[in-house]
Amino acid sequence: MTVRRWVIEHYAGNFPLWLAPDQVRVLPVTDAQMDYAQGIVNELRAQQVRVELEFSNDKLMGRIQRAEERRVHHILVVGQREQEANNVALRIHGKGQHGVKPRTEVVADILAAIRERRG
Amino acid sequence: MCLNLPTFLNVMEAPKPENAERKTLDDRQKMTDLERLRHSAAHVMATAIARLWPDAQFASGPAVENGFYYDVELEHRITPEDFPAIEAEMKKEIKANHVFEKLIVTREQAFADAQKGRLGALAERPAPSKFKIGNLADIPEGEPISYYKSGDFIDLCAGPHVMRTGNIGAYKLTTVASAYYKGDEKNPQLQRIYGTAFKNKTQLDEYFKMQEEAKRRDHRKIGAEMGLFVLDAEFVGPGMPLWLPKGTVLVEELEKLAKETEFAAGYVRVRTPHLAREKMYKTSGHLPYYAESMFPPMELDEMETEREELTSRLRQAELKVGEFVDGVMTKDSGKGGAIFEVSEDGSLQRSGPFLVKALDGLKRDYSIPPAVEAAADEFRRLKPKFDSLPPIDRYFLKAMNCPHHHRIFAAEPRSYRDLPLRLAEYGTCYRYEQSGELFGLMRVRSLNMNDAHIYCTEDQFASEFKAVNDMYLKYFKIFGLEKYQMRFSTHSKEGLGKKYVNEPELWLKTEDMVRRVLNESGINYVEVANEAAFYGPKIDVQVWSAIGREFTIATNQVDFAVPAKFGLTYRDRDNQDKTPLCIHRAPLGTHERFIGFLIEHYAGNFPLWLAPDQVRVLPVTDAQMDYAQGIVNELRGQQVRVELEFSNDKLMGRIQRAEERRVHHILVVGQREQEANNVALRIHGQGQQGVKPRAEVVAEILAAIRERKA
Fold first, then answer.
1. Residue numbers in A near B417 (CB within 8 A)
2. What per-residue confidence (pLDDT) applies to B8?
3. Angle made by CA atoms B3, B8, B10, in degrees to the nearest 5
4. In which domain, by residue range, is A41 found?
5. Is residue A99 part of a domain?
6. What is the mean pLDDT of residues B558-568?
7. How close does chain B come to A7, measured CA to CA in Å?
8. How far apart are CA B701 and CA B667, in angstroms?
9. Domain of A58: which CATH number?
């Protein structure tokens, strides 16, 4: 069995954060959070994190579902309240919602998990 | 980077050896002042050679990249020892300041003069000017035929020249090589005498100084000294470099740079196999047009055993039938012979089905022996089986990555939301270059390309293309390349449907988009008509090394035809399927060529971030071992390539060795440094930098690497 296949089967495609092809996706609830969301994306991308922003006319639930289907590891939802408090609502693939946390804490956690190749 | 059909071969490659291809009148009009001067110098050199050896037969004498040459047939083998005498004769011609006089003649006149040995000569001679007769035959009907006369020397020549021999400022003969007349090995072998010429002595001296410097910086020499790569022709194959550990550092640092830069620019990386089936390259159009530059295919026959058995049985049956038919014909005619079928092209064939048919024709008049009948039956039975075997599967080593990337585009349904899609890969390609043209890392058969293909809509083209150019400029800055030029090649109306895909409007539109971006970004470029690729305009990127030598590093190409050949589409906003444009780009070219260039550019003294040996720590005595090891551990923890060298050698010996190995930072620690938590810093090629705090030196090293400081 090749290494690649072994890795894929071992994790059933749900790779740890450091290995995940899609590490983070940021979802602004409405247009008003676009700048805030983009700022998070830029911050993470500058640290070589594989991160994308998805804003479309789709409803939030649709976007979350799509991100889950693509096995995006960290899903950061930002609405008006999160923006005002400099927070993010965190969702981890396969593990559901993790509550609202400070942006800096989430960013730091993401970077540490990648750096340490946490399982 | 996908390349293009007709111009394909030039891409990413060193200039090929000059060939004897005839320049068109159009090409001649484009000759620069310096080329005119050099071509005139070639005439003057021929004049000098004719004075010394009047029976010399001249062929062609063009200006070439760094000078000029003239091909001559002469019993005497010209060697560099003859150069002073030839140069002395040239001096006389130049001093005489003859006018280069153009004479238009008829074809008949030219043939008559050539017969009298007058062309490429000082006077009429008993032997005809045989090569000039051959050259005359190549001049198309209707094209004017001209001589150039300077002093006594008359040559068949379309020019152009400088006004007078006195305009040739400074010149020097350089080497002798051999070449076949018209570059064809069936023709006689000639002596090719090379020289160079400039407007004045200063420029000539500068040129030779640069050549000397280039020799000193020869990437093959430095590559061996530093242990960067080897070419193992015997076991691996010619033109296929093996990257040694130190060279691999360069390769991986460049890849890291590319990965970081491309990541920031929104590229995604892919990986593809080195092989693909014949269908891939037939679809892309590389087969058959590019077949000569690809390695021959590998044949994979799943039905090999069956195919071999059927072939052998069919062959035996054929022989048996053929023998009998031949025998009957021989008996009938009374002469020995064999039966053949004349095929459409007039050649004689003797296929199995034909022999079996011939046998049937004999049935009425002759009795057929049972063994022969059985053989014919077997043939009839097996032939359809043989014909229905699946064809042999042919695999090719990829010579370019684009077709694989196109298949990645095609692997999933794409929507306008997915565009621009930027697929990047340091792809390994294989190209079959002629063995005589292989040269160090500059012209190779296996290459790793900093490749990417950007699929975008027409609306996105300008910003994508601008981003590509910005990436080039960013790289130029990192490598300290101050002089560069982009050569923007466009199509020609006349070439549409021949040299160029027949899409006149798309050509104009794309070229216009490219031109606008180049202008808006303030990029230094020149536009060259009629040199585009088959599928779209291309931009060759030329850079000049630290010693002023020019290298073509990479080619960008705008491709509006191949995505359609592969049926690539995306679903647009209006729900229509549309074909994307594709930008092929490779700013860092190939590892082979780019590192070959960097070796010359830096003379092997790479900046810290690239240097294979970044830091070496030298404790003066045993007592500083722990302190030194602590510095090594700290740096190594930060991925710095650092070594500790403690040996019984004296310090000076170790410093000298580190300098020879081009170690960038040398940190010497003695007792005093240890006590004060300092290091004595020495930088390769720059000598001592004084004693500094350890923390400061470590921080500087890490910053210089992170920022890729020059």
1. 56
2. 31
3. 120
4. 14-115
5. yes
6. 92
7. 17
8. 11
9. 3.40.50.800
> What are the pLDDT digits (tens) for B415-470?
999 999 999 999 999 999 988 889 999 999 999 999 999 999 999 999 999 999 99
Greatest distance between any 2 Cα atoms in chain A: 51
Are B617 and B628 within 8 A, CB to CB? yes
A96: Cβ–Cβ under 8 A, 6 or more apart, which residues?
none
Lowest mean pLDDT among B14-18, B137-141, B611-615: B14-18
Using DSSP's 3-state secondary structure scheme, residue B319 falls into helix
Q: Which of A3, A4, A44, A48 should we substitute to test contact with B (largest number of B Cβ atoms within 10 Å)?
A: A48
Mutation test of the interface with chain A: which of B262, B263, B271, choosing the one with the most A Cβ atoms within 10 A?
B263
CA-CA distance, B540 to B485, in Å (whole number)?
A: 8
Confidence label for B9 from pLDDT (cuts 50, 70 and 90): very low
Size of interface A-B (CB pairs under 8 A): 6
Please give, rounded to a whole number of angstroms, the shortest distance from the CA of B708 to a CA of chain A: 16
For residues B397 and B430, is the Cβ–Cβ distance under 8 A? yes
**B263 to chain A nearest CA, in Å?**
7
Query: Rounded to an integer, what distance in angstroms lies between the CA atom of residue B160 and that of residue B177?
Result: 25
Cβ atoms of B631 and B623 closer than 8 Å = no
Q: Is residue A9 part of a domain?
A: no
pLDDT band with cut points at 50, 70 and 90 for residue A85 = very high
Q: Determine the straight-line distance between the first and last CA of chain B, rounded to whole angstroms.
A: 28
List C-alpha distances in Å: B638 to B115, B631, B635, B680.
Answer: 78, 11, 5, 21
DSSP string for B172-233: EEEEEEEEEGGG-TTSPEEEEEEEEEESSHHHHHHHHHHHHHHHHT-HHHHHHHHT-EEE-T
List chain B residues with CB under 8 Å of A45.
263-264
Residue A3's pLDDT is 59
More confident residue, B327 or B329: B327
Please check the confidence at residue B476 and state whether its pLDDT lies above 70: yes
Tell me the mean pLDDT in the region A71-87: 96
Residue whose entry in the numeric block shows the structure tokens 């077949």: B291
For the residues B173-192, what does the mean pLDDT come to? 91
What domains does chain B contain, in order, with CATH numbers?
31-215 (3.30.980.10), 246-293+396-602 (3.30.930.10), 304-387 (no CATH), 615-706 (3.40.50.800)
* Rounded percentage of chain B residues whose pLDDT exceeds 90: 70
Distance from CA of B274 to the nearest CA of A (A): 18
Q: Into how many domains does chain A fold?
A: 1
Please report residues of B whose CB lies closer than 8 A to that of A56. Answer: 417
ipTM for the predicted complex comes to: 0.81
Contacts of A46 in chain B (CB under 8 A): 264
Average pLDDT value for residue range B255-283: 95
Confidence category of residue B338, pLDDT binned at 50, 70, 90:
confident
